[in-house]
Amino acid sequence: METKTFLTQLQDRVQQIKDTAHYAFSPLDVAVLNFKLQPTSWSVLECLEHLNRYSRFYLPALEKAIAQTPVSSATQPVKYSWLGKKSLDLVNPESPKKHKTLARMNPQNSQLTTAVLDEFLQHQDTLLHLLGKAESVDLNKKAVPVEFFQLLKLRLGEALEFVVLHEQRHLQQALRVKERASQPISLVV
């Protein structure tokens, strides 16, 4: 897929993520946002905090990579490395397979407030801005370190797509938690 189409699709997805998070979670009370299906599962805010932790790493890395990457044609096709394909498969929102996260990225049992949602929405604005800036650079340049092992680098396009797919995956998780939190509790007598 050529660069401009690729980035437009990612921008549309990020805008949808931002809109969904805002309209689905902003009206909710903090108690609902902290509801957990079970002690080891994540609440809505924990899902968003997990994404915030990744954004705190990847957004500055993406910004730096975009600033340092040579200008390129918007008609150039986006290519994938084996590492990029593997990373995208891991976070694909269509995959039912669960994966453990790194301890430092796991917000389980955190005391969270609606500031988490505010930060998440700000990250979406930053990501939209970066996607706009990426239109003029070579998305096939290996420029973005992998968070858990920074000697490995993703191509710029792969890293952008990774962030978006990861957000979609955990937004779906947060929406499922919200749905369960909104269901009436039935007592068995």
Summary tags:
6% strand; 57% helix; Four Helix Bundle (Hemerythrin (Met), subunit A); 189 residues; 2 strands
Describe this structure in words.
α4 runs parallel beside α6. Strands 1-2 form a two-stranded antiparallel sheet. The relative contact order is 0.24. It is built from 6 helices and 2 strands; from the N terminus they run αααααββα. The protein has 189 residues and is mainly α. It is elongated and about 55 Å long. The protein has helices at 3-25, 30-33, 44-68, 82-91, 115-133, 156-182; strands spanning 142-146, 149-155. The protein has a single domain (3-182), classed as Four Helix Bundle (Hemerythrin (Met), subunit A). Residues 19-174 form the DinB-like domain. Pfam families: DinB_2. This is DinB-like domain-containing protein.
- Tally of strands: 2
> How many whole angstroms does the radius of gyration measure?
17 Å
Overall mean confidence score, pLDDT:
87
**Residue share in β-strands:** 5-15%
Name the CATH homologous superfamily: dinb family like domain
InterPro entries: DinB-like, DinB/YfiT-like
Pfam families: DinB_2
Protein name: DinB-like domain-containing protein
Domain DinB-like: 19-174
Brief digest:
This protein has 189 residues and is mainly alpha-helical. Strand 1 and strand 2 form a beta hairpin.
Layout: helices, strands, pairs:
Layout: H1 3-25, H2 30-33, H3 44-68, H4 82-91, H5 115-133, E1 142-146, E2 149-155, H6 156-182
Antiparallel strand pairs: 1-2
Helix pairs in contact: 1-5, 1-6, 3-5, 3-6, 4-6
